[in-house]
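Q: I'm writing up a methods section and want to include an example of the input and output format. Could you take the sequence below and give the corresponding predicted structure tokens, formatted cleanly so I can copy it straight into the document?
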Amino acid sequence: MAFSTPSTAESSSSSTPDRILFGSCNSQFQPQPLWPTIISRNASAFVWAGDAYYSDSKKHGVESAATPELLAQSSQAQLDQLGYQELMKQERTAIIGTWDDHDFGINNGDAQYPWKQKAAEEYLTFLRDSNRNKKNDEKLQWPILESRVNNRKGVYSMVVFDFEREGDPLVVDESFSTPLSNRSVAIFLLDVRYNKTPWKAPWNGVFQDLYGDYEGDFLGKDQWEWFEASISKSTARVNIVVTGLQVHTDRFFEGKIVEEWSRFPLSQHRLYQNLLRPNVRSPLIVSGDVHMAELLRRDCQRPHDWKQQTVNAGVMRSLVEVTTSGMTHSWGSSVCIGETFTCIPTYAQWFTSFAMHVAHINHGWRNLIDNNGPPQEGAKRRVQYTLDLNFAEFEFDWENEQVKARLWGIDSSDNEEASTAKRPLLSNAWKFDQLSVSFQPTGKLKSKDFQRQLEQLQVGALEANQGSLVTENDWICLPHRGTMPPYVKLIGPLSALGLSFTIFYLGPIILPLLLLFVLVRKFYPQKLKI
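A: Here is the clean output for your methods example:
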């Protein structure tokens, strides 16, 4: 079955569509203009994908981790936000989520953060207080999450919605022993901080690090066991994995600069194997962290089927990732986080914004979905990204068996004070079967590309004494628009920065000199003759 984009026309079968919203990177120090639009979507849940508040600080290049006092103050400051309080009053909308580094308490944080247990307790309190006005508060499984926090395991959890149950779709069951209808969604909220392996020292073995750290892990033993046991039992029609960091991207070789799952290749590979289990229907990934929104896709194949020429030889499956990041600050609006962070000048923000646009369209980042068809719901065509403030929405069309992903922002077409958006920034839709069923390849990927990646993973796994994590029968997932050599991770960002630097910094110097030269040639031509 070819992987195409179905229509995103509104379904008329339900007066209140079944929706779940996602957002991340939300500073309590900045204006929070998206809450009116979020509330207007009348969703069953709002899911934090990390950085619900900012506890740490960075002044003049010096990073400071949050103390227990700052952790409490930061979460309370977010609870005191008037727009967020309006969402808290919406009885229908449960507020759930996981964290990333800034609400964890330290930039690029990991298992070595000394106050991580206090941060986990504070985050649990934040989620519970966010739901104190909800009619279904007791069904959000607080005792289970509280037990994990108290046992120093982290803040990972899962929530199930069965929309066949009108009025109260929440299901209290992590074991999937309760029968679910074909209108159900399971949300797995992963904790990529509490047990994360520290990044290696910067610039340590650059060329080796082009392929990542094969000893690194994001989740830890207990969380992996829980996740694999839970998702292997899932009977939900749609399965969504939420993680603070991007999964599909592979853009830079230094994790301390650009954090992403590809820096720990075995963790990324293990996650893919679980998402592609036969019982896991319609898997989707939601991520945050990067202060922009993107629609990403990897296509996956089993090299073993190709080598053995089985009936499945050459067939692929697709994994879609929706990144939503930047509710108060983004590359296209302002990169200023707030009073505890040093803000860069406006001109420098124009420079960084232009560089990010160049990086997205120079064809180096081949996980990005390129929608060359008609615009969906008036949203952006071609490369599916936006640098504007945003949050994500999944709308489930059960009759047509498809999920619609929309990225909403602020509509400034009429006036600067518009409180709700008229059309999404990005919009795409996928049939459930497109997310669950194998299809014949139609793109640039070849079977030899998957075999090469498998061999690389096997070598790395053996060197890390983790050979059992990669087998011949595993799925291998690659950017759907084609592979790229590792050096592109360096050349791609440098080309974008170089062009931007030339335009924004060298341009203002060179252009006046050229103009002066032309004027001199015009008015004093004889003196310039040799």
